Amino acid sequence: MRAVVQRVRSARVDIGDDLVGQIGVGLCVLVGVTHDDGPEQVTKLARKVHGLRIFDDQAGAMNLALDDVGGSMLVVSQFTLYGDTSKGRRPTWIEAARPEHAEPLVDQLVAHLRELGVVVETGQFRAEMVVTIVNDGPVTLVIDV
Question: Which residues are tagged catalytic?
């Protein structure tokens, strides 16, 4: 699994005229799934993202985690994280898992994060979404598990 994690002041997902998910301070997590991902990667990613200490403490050092700042998460599935541009200019999606494999794992990730006590909003799988992210810092990490 691959995640692009952004510390945000706010983030939201719209589909057409409908607001699907919205958070204030927290993390926007764009998630990609590849073919050999399973429950082990879901658990590892959930724990990693939940425990990231990327929020500023009173001294301005990144020492605080999501729970410490009372933040929430917006989790959005994004198969394009496994796009391969090594040959030419048109990406291939060979490494991205098929929706039948990916969607249950993203759902498991959201459920696991909620079990950890995180307030989680989501996008909608296989939908054309507009994701608005107000990156804070900016702080952006790429995590592969």
Answer: 78-80
